[in-house]
Design brief:
single chain; 117 residues; alpha+beta; Alpha-Beta Plaits; two-stranded antiparallel sheet; 35% strand; flat
Length: 117
């Protein structure tokens, strides 16, 4: 069965106005959804990415450069990812449709992972 990556896109401000209690409730939704996928043997992996933006790596004419990643002023960031197992894109999309991320204004980029030999 192929694996699919769900890249969770969001605006940096999507969760900024929530109280600590509301954030905990949102986190619990993601934990419950992950547990459901695991119980169905669909969850391959996944993590929340740190909010600080990371680093961008660039190669220019043999030179290597590291710069700060997307800033909080960015219109959109990748906030996390899941890797799931599904028979095809249709099934993967159906599984992804239950992700709490869609409930909170984010969007999901769904990509099939090409197996390298």
């Amino acid at each position: 069965m192929p694996n699919y990556m769900l890249l969770l896109h969001e605006q940096p401000s999507d969760f900024s106005g929530l109280s600590p209690e509301a954030i905990e409730a949102v986190i619990n939704e993601y934990v419950a959804w992950s547990a459901k996928l695991a119980s169905e043997n669909r969850l391959v992996g996944g993590e929340k990415l740190r909010d600080e933006g990371g680093k961008h790596l660039h190669g220019f004419g043999g030179e290597f450069r590291v710069s700060d990643g997307p800033y909080t002023e960015a219109k959109e960031i990748v906030g996390g990812f899941y890797t799931i197992a599904a028979a095809d894109y249709n099934e993967a999309a159906e599984v992804a449709s239950g992700c709490p991320h869609l409930k909170y204004g984010g969007w999901i980029e769904l990509r099939e992972i090409e197996q390298m030999s």
